[in-house]
Write a structure and sequence with these properties.
Layout (H helix, E strand, L loop, with lengths): L8 H22 L4 H6 L21 H4 L2 H17 L10 E5 L17 E3 L4 E5 H10 L4 H20 L2 H11 L4 H22 L9 H16 L19 H13 L8 H7 L3
Helix pairs in contact: 4-6, 6-8, 6-9, 7-8, 8-10
Length: 276
């Protein structure tokens, strides 16, 4: 008795064994199955999550929410490490700490409702998971990408620290306080530009064109403005500087998204543009 099904024999006579095998492989691949898995019995591990595929489900627990910001941070850090390889400047280490209790915040911000921010003193991005969860409850359509952008801007603040921009503001607060507001607004526009660079490299549509994301970001800004924060002049928290206008931030976000290169977000170019 033949082991070959009668339905297969006409195809073997027409295409030969190699042709039938090739057709079978194509069918298996179209079904979304890796043919190597069928041959070896080994299952390939799933690809790591990205800022797009790793967005937590609506019912995510606090533990699940804690996974998403590091995914975004890893993308932002990789982008900046690649950019810094082309310069003579070393990109220093940066850390992230997701906290369920904001009393664990560094930079003298323990207990303050400031969401995600960068602390230059310990080169750490702090993420308030409670603030993230509240944002998801109030803005379910925009909170996740808003949180992602906050993380990306915090990694951009690390670059601002490396380039000496935060030190210049700290010095101006003592030596020339009348110039500080303008400097801080330019720093804020640069943060938007840096955040857009990550958005583009992550393959996400412009977030400043997404009303749901903007609404969530506006809520974060309101909470930050309401927080009573008293810090020494040398402690510059980029997320708490004098904010630029909505027009200024949108303009420089668009610049960073159009051509995601750090040089296009330079403070000298922002100064030349004249927006505040």
């Amino acid at each position: 008795m033949s082991l070959i099904p009668e339905s297969i024999k006409p195809h073997i006579r027409r295409f030969g064994w190699s042709g039938v095998l090739a057709i079978g492989i194509v069918i298996v691949m179209l079904a979304g199955i890796n043919p190597i898995t069928l041959i070896s019995g080994q299952v390939s591990p799933p690809p790591p999550p990205t800022s797009i595929t790793g967005v937590p489900p609506a019912t995510a627990t606090a533990e699940a929410l804690a996974v998403y910001p590091p995914v975004v941070g890893g993308e932002a850090e990789l982008m900046w490490r690649r950019a810094f390889r082309q310069t003579a400047i070393k990109y220093p280490e940066i850390k992230m700490q997701t906290v369920a209790d904001r009393s664990a915040f560094g930079c003298g911000l323990g207990g303050k409702d400031v969401a995600t921010f960068y602390c230059a003193q310990d080169a750490t991005v702090y993420v308030d998971l409670d603030a993230y969860a509240r944002l998801r409850t109030k803005f379910p359509l925009g909170a996740d990408y808003a949180q992602a952008l906050l993380v990306a801007e915090a990694y951009g603040a690390h670059v601002q620290m490396v380039l000496g921009s935060l030190d210049k503001i700290a010095q101006a607060r003592v030596a020339a306080p009348e110039t500080v507001e303008v400097m801080e607004k330019r720093l804020d526009m640069q943060a938007a530009c840096y955040g857009a660079m990550w958005t583009k490299t992550a393959g996400i549509e412009p977030l400043y064109d997404n009303p749901a994301v903007l609404a969530a970001l506006a809520e974060v800004d309101r909470n930050r403005a309401a927080a009573i924060v008293t810090l020494p002049p040398e402690t510059v928290i980029p997320e708490l500087v004098t904010p630029a206008s909505a027009e200024g931030r949108k303009t420089w976000y668009d610049v960073g998204y159009a051509i995601p290169a750090g040089g296009n977000c330079g403070l000298d170019k922002i100064e030349a543009k004249g927006l505040l």
